[in-house]
Design goal:
5 helices; mainly alpha; 156 residues
């Protein structure tokens, strides 16, 4: 008979597949003339992204609850006139748009967190050049440098 194996503390020491090693701040791209990222600046960006993600998840939950309530109430409108029905429809569509916007921002925020951990945070996804530390600090979800963003906005 084989002896039954028992888990050891060694198993807890093995990192899971989801464990990500943060990038070295000095290796994050910066524009010419900018000082390299410091560990404090990277931690500040990471904290801001995590905080934004938590806030957005709460907004999405609140919007989904509001939409659910509006959908329930839409069946109660047997005596509503056209204005009441129209108002309910506009309110429901407004909540749906808010939820969709929050989901998109959450996606962008999570991608920025992934790029930060992978060491590609601050690289333009179009041309590969540094976006600029100041731009990343002002808009942590930026994926394009100013030139590429301007080109993208000019397209019809």
């Amino acid at each position: 008979m084989a002896a039954k194996e028992t888990p050891t503390d060694d198993a807890a020491a093995v990192p899971s597949a989801r464990t990500v090693t943060p990038a070295d701040p000095a290796e994050l791209p910066v524009r010419s003339g900018e000082a390299p990222w410091t560990a404090e600046e990277v931690e500040e960006a990471r904290t801001e992204l995590r905080s934004d993600a938590e806030r957005l998840r709460a907004e999405i939950t609140a919007s989904e609850e509001a939409i659910s309530g509006l959908m329930r109430d839409s069946g109660d409108g047997a005596g509503d006139d056209q204005a009441d029905t129209g108002t309910k429809n506009v309110t429901r569509e407004h909540e749906m748009a808010l939820a969709a916007n929050a989901r998109e921002m959450l996606y962008q925020t999570e991608r920025a967190e992934q790029r930060l951990e992978a060491g590609t945070y601050g690289s333009c996804e179009s041309c590969g050049q540094p976006i600029g530390k100041a731009r990343m600090q002002a808009f942590p979800r930026a994926t394009l440098c100013v030139d590429c963003k301007q080109r993208q906005e000019r397209r019809p």
